[in-house]
Structure formats: structure tokens, C-alpha cells
Design brief:
The chain is an all-alpha fold and 422 residues long. 68% of the residues lie in helices and 0% in strands.
Amino acid sequence: MTEGQWNRGRKRLIWIDQARGVAMLLVILGHAQLGKVSQSFIYSFHMPLFFIISGLTFQKEKARNQRLGAYLVKHGKRLVVPYFWCNFAMFPMWFLQHRVLTRVQDEGFFSVLKGIFYSNSLVMDATANPTWFFLTLFLALAGYKIVLNLSRGDEWKELVLVITCGFLAFADRGKDLPWHLNTSFCGIVFLYLGTKLMEIGYSDRDGAIYGWMKRKGPIGRKCRCLAVMIAAGLLCWRVNGRVSMHGNKYGKSLLLFYVTAILFSCVIVQICIWLPRIRMLTYIGRHTILLVALHTSLLQLGRWFFPVFGQSRGYALLLAVLVTLLLLPVTAGLIRLAPFLEGCESEGRTANCVGRVVMTYAAACIPFYYALRTVGINMRGNFSMGLGMNVLLLLLCIAFVLWARRRCPLIFLDRCPDGNGF
């Protein structure tokens, strides 16, 4: 393992990228309809794993000394802004799925628009439901900042506040709050655990989970330790039952939920430390925002065009693999065209301006269409009017991009955030 992998400065931690890549693959598999047992197993730890990874990269002292406003702006740029961009830019895909292919009438445009701002598909759907995690992680990071401010460097006060947050998450079951506010309390616990794992286990160069699990130690001992953790995790998972952080459901026991999530997350992270660098896995881990936003729509389109993918677990697994491979070039193109979709901006001015106009048009075309229908203007069957309105919309998008560049740079962001993302 190279020195750069363990440098917590500006260089990225390769094993963290790969752990996040594994978590992203688990998300895709969890949505691929592999069966209830497989889904239940994946759901028992894949979202806690994301929170723990965010905790591994969290710089506690820097956050404690940072003003709350600057802290929220920093994390809002890399989570909240990409959330809204991804959801509005997904309107054409939503229109294709729900109005062109299936003609589903139970969810209208304005309901989906409200769903984007509410960000809880248990109440109302958005265009990219899996992106709920971005806003929930933002709330968890904000909550953890408050915990750090209240504890004022006292580790015991911090622990008590984190435990309180953990019980608040469990007490609020059944309440479908906006931005999954209740789930964010649970996220605070995993953020805290991630910071502690980095402090006590990953901070030294041997990269062990615990002091007795050294990277240079006997391979037999390491395998035995992982086997014990896997066995204990499987037992806790089977006893606890189905878990869904999205649904604010934690099984039969809060303790078993936390133990299961921690054990499997530690196993995944430790394996990623031992793994050599896998470029594809690293790439997936570095671009999870776009993968989270796009994968469910591609899975649904695959099952619609090719119903065979919904007939067995083997075909469902094949679909998940094909969607993952398809997403690699798609995300590469989108990042080059519109890097602000995942929280950063490119250096090329021409490509950047074109990307801004294209994404603004994608985000605005469906709302513009429904706004015209609301005032009685129907473009169906009238080619000249449709062409004229689209030209008008394009000019409005160009004007908006020029205005935002001068007056509101936050809309398109102005630089890449530091660190490993979420």
C-alpha cells in the first residue's frame, strides 16, 4: 500500500474509494430484485456502510473549529446542490417512464415536484428516489456538528449525545418526515463510529480495524477474525429480521441492528484495505452521486424493454451487471459535460458553459411544458408552436446560465470540494 493511500491531506484514500465502490454495487444489487433474502441481507448494512465511510473521512477538529454557516455551505455544495440538480435533470427520464412508456396516471407532475423537495418517497415520489440519502447525510453531518459544538471536546459528553441520537432514531419509527429527518439521527451514530474507527484502527500505517489485526500479521489470524465477525453478523441479521433505513425500520432490536451494520461494515472496509487497487471499483467509489441518481431508472427501463430480466434472480443479477457497465461511460460523459452534477466544476470554460445550458434545459423542459399546459397552451400536434417554445426555452436557459454565473455562483458551484466526497 502506497504512502499516498494513507495521506489524509489532499490525496484520496484508495481503500475508502474502493469501500464506497463496494457499497454502491450493493445499492445496485439491492434494487435489482434479487429476492427477499438477498435484499434483506444487503439492506442490513449497505446504508450504514455509507455513513461509516463518511465518518472515516470526517475531520473532527476542523469541523469543531469551523463556523456553522461555513460548515453547512461546504457540505451543502457537495450534497444538497447535486441532489436538486440530479432530480430536476431526471425529469425527462421520469416523463419517458411514466408518460410515454407506461402512462402511469397515479403520480402527476406537481406531486413529483413536491416529492423532490420533500425527499421521502414513502410520502411522495421524486424523479430519483435513491438520492434521498444525500439530504439525509447532510442532516446527519449538520447534527454531528451540533453534537461536537455541544460536547466542546469532552469525549464522554459526545458519546452521551450520540447515544441519545441513536435512540431518537428508533423512537421516531413510523413517522415519515421530510428529508428522512428521523433517519439522520441514526446516521449521526454511524458517522461517530466511522470517526472512531479511523482514530483507533486506521490512523496508523498498518491499517488494522483493531490493534490485534495488523496488516503484517499472520494471514490465518486475519481470516479467523473476519470469519468470526461474519458469523456473528449473520446471526444478528437472521435474528433481527428485515431492516430498511429508508423506511425507518430497524428490525426487532435496535442493538442487533447496530451490531449487524457495524460488523459487516468493518468486514467490507478491512477487505478493501487488503485489496490491490481495482481501477473500476475506485472509479465507482469516486462517482457515486451520479450512479445513485441514475441506476434505478436504468434498471426499470431494462425490465420494461426486456421482461426476461424480471423472471429469475440470475437474469436480475445480469441486469445489475449490465447497468453498472453502462453507467461507467454515461457518468464519465456527464462528469465531463456537467461536473456540477456531482458537486464540482471543470476548468474548461466552453465545455462547462455548454454543459450548464444542456443540464438547465433538461431540468426545465418538463416543468416548462406543464407550466404551458396549466395556462392553456398545448403544443401537441402543432410543430411550429412546439419548435418556437423550445427555442424560447433554450434562450431562457442561456440567459439563466449567464445570470447565475454573475449573480449566483452557488447554483453551478465554483470548485471541487476537498476530501473523498460522501
